Amino acid sequence: MTAPTETTEDEDRGTVDLSVVIPAYNEEERLGPTLDAVTRYLADNESRFGSWEVIVSDDGSTDGTREVAALRHPHVRLVAADRNRGKGNALRLGVAATGGSRVLVTDADLAAPIEELERLDKALSEGSAAAIGSRAVPGAEIADHQHRLRELLGRAGNLLIRATAVPGIRDTQCGFKLFDGDLAREAFAGSRLDGWGIDIEVLQHLHRGGHPIAEVPVRWSHQPGSKVGPLDYPKVLADLARLRVRRLRPADLLVPFLFLALSIALYSGRFFDPDHRYLVDSLQDQNQWEWFFAVTADNLAHFRNPLFSDFQNFPDGVNLMANTVMLGLSVPFAPLTLIAGPAVSLSVCMALGLTATAVAWYWLIVKRVVRHRGAAFVGAALAAFAPPMVSHANAHPNFVILFMIPLIIDRALRLATGARVRRDGIVLGLMAAYQVFLGEEPFLLAALGMTLFALAYAVARPEVAKEAWRPLGKGLLIAGAVCLPLVAFPLYWQFTGPQSYHSVLHGDNAGNSPLSLLAFSERSLLYGNAGRANELSLNPTEQNAFYGWPLVLVAFGIVVRLWERPLVKALAFTSVAAAVLSMGPKIRIPLTETVYPGPWALVRKFPLFESVIEGRVAMICAPALGVLLALALEKVLAARRIGAQYFGLLAVALALLPILPAPLKSEQREAVPEFISSGMWKSYVGKDESLVPLPLPDPGYAEALHWQTSTGLGFKLPGGYFNGPYGTDRIGIYGAVPRYTSDMLRDVRYTGKVPVIGKNWQAQAKQDFAYWKAGALVVAPQPNDEKLRQAVEALTGKPGKWTGGVWVWDLHEGS
User: Fold this and answer.
1) Measuring CA to CA, which residue among 546, 437, 542 is closest to residue 486?
2) pLDDT over 80 (residue 234)
3) Residue 374 near residue 389, CB atoms below 8 Å
4) 52-58 and 130-134 as β-strands: parallel, antiparallel, unpaired?
5) Do 658 and 550 touch, CB atoms closer than 8 A?
6) 666 phi and psi angles, rounded to 5 deg
7) How far apart are CA 779 and CA 807, in angstroms?
8) Measured between alpha carbons, how far is 630 from 646 in angstroms, rounded to an integer?
9) What pLDDT shows up at residue 12?
10) What are residue 587's phi and psi, to 5 degrees?
């Protein structure tokens, strides 16, 4: 009989056919029967498994584990740690002490009986590097189940593990695994985790090395006395995070911080004081978006329908799903909105969202296009911070927070391989459903861009397209089947619910001028020209092209130089097609009166496309140009001639420097009148009544929305800045349906002219005030405010009261 040894090193280790490693921590009660069962089975089956040994790896037990009598068996050895560190540490010590051609790792409770070794050995003999017992594949038998909650947590954990660490393995945590001996010692020696996550780490090591892993169904039975406690589940998640971080290169860790710094620099004028700073070029969109975040948080806090609100456009209300409320972000950001306010929440969301978008493009480019991290960084920076993105960064989070688009593209590319069509189709469906709640129009444009790319790539590589179209089509059908039930009711509400509309018409001049593709945007740090940019765009938030002629010229050179690559051909076609489509249904040749029909005319009346501002299609060019730039940079940096590197890098620098963005313009925000901020309004507005700022808030001036959000949505407003229906055809318009009184007062504000107001105007005003359920009218300081005061006095037949920095008319009887 041999006495148990207590060592952390392998001393005089002999070579055997099979080593069995059993980690143990305070297993005084269970270890003896387990060792008896294992040694008896292996002794009876030496003809099959050959020579064997059992290594018990004690992880610093404080009970009598090291004195168990079964440890004196001649084929059993004990290795012991000086203190308790975790299962991972115990396995690392135990496997290091083995000498077997094959290594079996099994838990001390033998939840999977030792007899199941026969199944694992068969799988290993058929060429696998590891055979792991599984409770989640067909053929597995579970006699005694764990507690239902633990099973659910285990399944959720396995889903996460498959998605992030070991694709294709359904059950990594079953404690019964057989390995090729040399590979096991290599994998465990290279492991770093001391906890339960070591199973994942070792399997990930084998997976990344290209070693086949067989998942084998086993009989399994839950044993009492499990060492897995409630706190171990978050520990495994922490181990997963460590594994993910460890796989990253230093550049991969640096990139998110660089993109975050770029985002903060872009938003520096508002980011550090969002409550008191306003982005000038957002026009009224900052007020609108803060309202969107505020009303979503308020609806959730009061368990109201998140798809509707009557705080604007009272009493008719606003169909929030038919507006760009971005429930995919305004909902998760609701706690921050409730704690810090919508201005802070929106500011943080936009800066982090733009960062996440850039990181997502970087991840996709590194994974699919180039390995050089510097080239991928530059390409991703162009995709996320191109001039049209910077223009929309003033006002449209839905067009700059696009981190799901690269993930959707990657999942579609996975589908095309046909490897895991069902799983990838399901994931794509979930991603698509989430993107619907981030922004439908950007999703539509992304789908258009992907379609253009796919068509061009199919022409360039027909043999690949022939192999890909069946799994891709099947996967897309699965994705649709998953996505549609999740979005069916919200979309039904959007298109048929209260205050829904059919389409929003933007006129015939929403396309880009060809010159805008070559010009520089207003926010170009070196060449910005607000006058010229606004001549070529709808407004500062819709400068949808402006890539600059140097970048266009360099992109052309890249395409010519790398034309033999099918990817380059597809990207070039996508960019050119998107640019031409963005010119709209009529293309006017610059410096002439010649107009030609544009290809957009073919799709402009299709459902969904009819509401798109066609100039935005040029945004598709940004990631396409970014990928082209990444391809060129990688080739330049790999060039052996210094001259080629120098001139290549110089050309890229000259293309990017002119479009380097300046920080977005900001100014001191208009102060909320004391009448609102001090709560004086409360004595004027009763339950189910509204406070009526005059003229009504509208897309041209919506400061009253800021008043409302500053009070925590304490009162309701008629009018507002939103999309809603107009007329019997329910055509979409910006703002409330016009009423005589609101139109007249708006004209007074902008013209300074008061019409002759008689009984007919007074009677109409009385009807409109009643329709709005007005408790009080308010005229704040603004252009032509004296004329407005005169008009309101004439309409109400009584003077206003100056209080709290505004003129107020109390409409209650006897006031």
Assistant:
1) 437
2) no
3) no
4) unpaired
5) yes
6) -140, 165
7) 5
8) 16
9) 45
10) -110, 120
Give 258-321 as a DSSP string: HHHHHHHHHTHHHHT-TTTEEEGGGTTHHHHHHHHHHHHHHHHHTT--TTEE-SSSTTT-EEGG
Q: Does residue 343 contact residue 516 with C-beta atoms inside 8 Å?
A: no
Q: Kindly provide the b/e burial profile for residues 216-251, where b requires at least 16 CB atoms within 10 angstroms of the residue's own CB.
A: bbbbbeeeeeebbeeebbebbeebbeebeeeeeeee
From CA 70, how far away is CA 64, in angstroms rounded? 12
- Give phi and psi for 721, each to the nearest 5: -120, 105
The count of C-alpha atoms lying within 13 angstroms of the C-alpha of 539, restricted to the half-sphere facing its C-beta, is 14
Residue 700 one-letter amino acid: G
Q: What is the torsional sign of CA 232, 233, 236, 237?
A: negative
pLDDT digits (tens, 9 = 90+) for 342-356: 999 999 999 999 999
d(CA 233, CA 150): 9
Return the pLDDT at 8.
40
Cβ neighbours of residue 784 closer than 8 Å, sequence gap 6 or more: 748, 749, 750, 751, 752
User: Which of 27-36, 421-430, 485-494, 693-702 comes out lowest in average pLDDT?
Assistant: 27-36
Q: Please state, in angstroms and as integers, the Cα–Cα distance from residue 509 to each residue in 167, 232, 532, 538, following that order.
A: 50, 61, 17, 8
Contact in structure between 71 and 22 (CB atoms under 8 Å): no
What is the rounded distance in angstroms from the CA atom of residue 797 to the CA atom of residue 793? 6
- The dihedrals phi and psi of 697, each to the nearest 5 degrees, come to -60, 140
| Kind of pairing between the strands at 16-24 and 100-106 | parallel
User: pLDDT tier at 161 (50, 70, 90 boundaries)?
Assistant: low
Mean pLDDT of 542-563: 97
CB 190 within 8 A of CB 204: no
Cβ-contact 45, 37 below 8 angstroms: no
Nearest of 745, 755, 739, 743 to residue 784 by alpha carbon: 745
DSSP 3-state percent helix, strand, coil across the chain (nearest 5): 55, 10, 35
Instruction: State the Cα–Cα distance between residues 717 and 777, nearest whole angstrom.
Output: 11
DSSP result, 453-494: HHHHHHHH-HHHHHHHHHHHHHHHHHHHHHHHHHHHHHHHHH
Q: Identify the sign of the CA torsion 290, 295, 300, 305.
A: negative
The values of phi and psi at residue 544, to 5°, are -85, 0
One-letter amino acid at 309 equals S
The alpha carbons of the chain give a radius of gyration, in whole angstroms, of: 34
Count the residues in the chain.
815
Q: Which tokens in the block code for residue 236? A: 């495994």
In whole angstroms, give the CA distance from residue 151 to residue 245.
Answer: 27
Determine the residue type at 167. Answer: P
292-307 average pLDDT score: 97
